[in-house]
# Entry
Amino acid sequence: MSIGKIHHFGEGCACPMGRLFRMLFSSLRFEKQDLVIVDTAAGVEHFGRSLDGQCDHVLCIVDPSYESIMMAKRVETLAGEAKLPVSVILNKITPEIDEDLTVALEGVTIIGRLPDNRSIFLNNLKGKSLDPEMPEIESVCDAIEQAWI
# Structure
């Protein structure tokens, strides 16, 4: 499920989409073993709209950039106010970057890493879906399942 993303000029505020999400999500019933991932726009606006109040856990994707690191720390703070645990997946990781990001995110739970992979980059650039059977993708999916199940 994808929420809070503006797709067209002049579409208006994402608030109505947030309200719709809250109504829909609060009416759904899940079993303990169900895993639902909601993809929100990057940033923290959904916290201001209390959309994460319907969730059990926050998963944050962190790229190797200062802005992404700061955003992950902000997400952790806001999720903490909602008493929600946060897990991070590091994206576009090289051996040199891995250690720096791990240090920069000290105290944050890192559950997976996606390598800086040309195939992943080109698929993303072309708007193609990732192959869920790629070892790197399988590894992250396994990490997500382990964190929640």
Q: What stands out?
A: The first strand starts at residue 2 and ends at 3.
